[in-house]
Specification:
Layout: E1 2-5, E2 8-10, E3 16-22, E4 31-37, E5 44-50, E6 56-58, E7 66-71, E8 76-81, E9 90-97, H1 103-106, E10 114-115, E11 119-123
Parallel strand pairs: 2-11
Antiparallel strand pairs: 1-3, 3-8, 4-5, 4-9, 5-6, 7-8, 9-10, 9-11
């Protein structure tokens, strides 16, 4: 089970940090990520990370502004979002694959099989 938190309203140029906690066993072969969906738009994969270190992926739209990280001690995934723009407004979802996760899969975090319920981010 994945549970997101940390969404909210922020002014353009501001920052938010999303968190995603999970239950269950994690290994270095697994991966987690974030995607978002704005009204009337398709899901957009944002970032993904190997849970115990190694490869990370960022979409071009967020590269340099968003940072994904994983705290093994807290079993928590984070997405630090800086320099937020109006177009970042969306529902943000945490996703995971609790089995071997190749780089090709990590480049599409919107397709990872386990997902949270989402948290709203509104930039004005």
């Amino acid at each position: 089970q994945l549970v997101e938190s940390g969404g909210g309203s922020v002014q353009a140029g501001g920052s938010l940090r999303l968190s995603c906690t999970h239950s269950g066993y994690i290994s270095s072969r697994h991966c987690m990520g974030w995607f978002r969906q704005a009204p009337e738009k398709e899901r957009e994969g944002l970032a993904a990370i190997r849970t115990l270190g190694g490869y990370t992926y960022y979409a071009n739209s967020v590269k340099g502004r968003f940072t994904i990280s994983y705290d093994n001690a807290r079993d928590t995934l984070y997405l630090q979002m800086d320099s937020l723009k109006l177009e970042d407004t969306a529902i943000y979802y945490c996703a995971a694959q609790f089995q071997w996760c190749p780089k090709s899969t990590m480049r599409h975090p919107e397709s990872l099989p386990s997902r949270g319920q989402g948290t709203q981010v509104t930039v004005s």
